[in-house]
């Protein structure tokens, strides 16, 4: 029944040790052998996501930057790309400077910030991403195209900031949280849901024939777009509420369980 499965990476595909377990790796291979397209859908940059995708043996287009970039692994052809509108980039930069907020951006798949601080160092360590410092951000980076901008701060503060930025930047952007302390800004068509719909059409299948698996609120669009939306046991409560099914946690091979149940038919009902 299902022809495509899109899987989030952090706290979904990988466990808390940042590993794809052998059991989950086997399930991915079995799904591919069964003729199902297995892809990743992540907020990570392409460079970071492709490293994990290649480790798992995947060789298909993957969804990165929350859906702002869909790119082939084999020949790195860009299939779908949306940049943050330049007016929104300028407004966001100015707002963050005026309010002394830590802002990061991606240019040509490289991570940039105006200053080096612990937030940047921790983010880089978490994602295994090299960063670059550009003090003259407004002159050198603002005019360039970026698929994603990121503010790192206290979760409660970001919850208050989000509606302020929506009012400031308007409907041209998509704002979401990938983790409690990460507020991410993309083009309004840069969502995992729209990217999943694009990939389904690319592979000639209906959205009803797709599965999406995730753990955080930035996954909700693709769970809603998919024929079957699966939330991890460690997912936030709001995602579980809209999911069609809640699988095991990322430390219990929850992705494998979902593949076994809905693709391979290997899970027996109690």
From TrEMBL:
<dbReference type="InterPro" id="IPR000150">
    <property type="entry name" value="Cof"/>
</dbReference>
<dbReference type="InterPro" id="IPR006379">
    <property type="entry name" value="HAD-SF_hydro_IIB"/>
</dbReference>
<dbReference type="Pfam" id="PF08282">
    <property type="entry name" value="Hydrolase_3"/>
</dbReference>
<dbReference type="InterPro" id="IPR036412">
    <property type="entry name" value="HAD-like_sf"/>
</dbReference>
<protein>
    <submittedName>
        <fullName>HAD family phosphatase</fullName>
    </submittedName>
</protein>
<dbReference type="InterPro" id="IPR023214">
    <property type="entry name" value="HAD_sf"/>
</dbReference>
